[in-house]
Structures are given as C-alpha cells and as structure tokens.
Amino acid sequence: MTKSAAARMTADGWEIVDTSGFLHLIGPLWQRVVDGVHEYAIVTEDKHHNRRGLVQGGVIMTLADRSCGMTARYAAGKEHMATIQFDTHFVESGKIGETLVSRPHVVRITRSLVFITTEVTAADRVIAMASGVFKILRSE
Questions:
Q1: Residue 78: beta bridge partners?
Q2: CB-count burial class (<10 Å; 0-12, 13-18, 19+) for 34
Q3: Predicted TM-score (pTM) of this structure
Q4: CB 116 within 8 Å of CB 103
Q5: Which phi and psi angles does 71 have, rounded to 5°?
Q6: How far apart are CA 120 and CA 137, in angstroms?
Q7: Residues forming beta bridges with residue 49, ordered by sequence position
Q8: Bridge-partner residues for 31, per DSSP?
Q9: 132 and 82 in contact (C-beta within 8 Å)?
Q10: DSSP result, the chain
C-alpha cells in the first residue's frame, strides 16, 4: 500500500485493524464507525489480482466474512465466534486500486447464533452481497 493511500484512509477516519494469519497477508484491513455503523475496507493492490487483472473473488469473500464476523462479535458482546454458513453473490468486478468497503448489518441475534448480511462496495457500485450465520462459542 502506498503512503498516499494510507494517508487518505487515515484522513477519512479509518484505522488499521491488528491482524495476523491469512488476513495479514491480504491486508491491511481498515475499520471505522460512522453513525454507529461498523465499516471495514481493503485498498486493493496488484497482489489482489486474478488472471483477468481484476480483484480476486477470494479477497472479496474474505473481506465480507471477516467484517461480518467482527460485527457479530461486537453485536453479541462475545469474543469467540465461528462462521457456520456463508453465502456470497458477486454482482460486479472490483478493479485493482479501488477501496472495497463492507458495512455489515445484524439481522438477528439468538442465544447461540448471529445472522448478518453485508454489501461490499467500490465507490457507489455494489461488488458483492453476502450473508452468514455465526455460532457463538463458549469462552475458553
């Protein structure tokens, strides 16, 4: 990520999420809260391209899954969750250099499950729609 892209994200109120593992490889992942709504973003780079030179679908799915999971944790007030079902529908291609943003929405919380949806956008275009079910795990 270029210094100017990072400066632009910071100026717009985004903060980098401390990550490890797979997400650390494709990140940085950014987050912010706007009017009480959690938002997450990835600024796409050349490392995110597929064979057609567009954003790899797995990057979009990872952003959707992680952002929904993080929002589920905040909403349920529980630290440990597991994705037990996740559907993604690709609507349009993402282009390298675009900032992809996910704004998850909690549909319902039960004692053991969180149902959540999101749209991944680039500027004013919807790139993907996703929905998932997250299992609230017992604390260890």
A1: none
A2: exposed
A3: 0.90
A4: no
A5: -65, -40
A6: 26
A7: 55
A8: 15, 40
A9: no
A10: --HHHHHHHHHTT-EE----HHHHHH---EEEEETTEEEEEEE--GGGB-TTSBB-HHHHHHHHHHHHHHHHHHHHT-S-EEEEEEEEEE-S--BTTPEEEE--EEEEE-SSEEEEEEEEEETTEEEEEEEEEEEEPPP-
Task: Output the six-digit token pair for 2.
Answer: 């270029």
Number of residues written out for the chain: 140
Structure token digits, residue 85:
């079902």
**pLDDT tens for each residue of the chain, 140 residues long:** 677 878 888 888 889 988 888 877 888 899 999 988 899 999 999 998 999 999 999 999 999 999 999 999 999 999 899 999 999 999 999 999 999 999 999 999 999 999 999 999 999 999 999 999 999 998 76
The β-bridge relationship of strands 105-109 and 113-122 is antiparallel
25 is written with which tokens? Answer: 């490889």
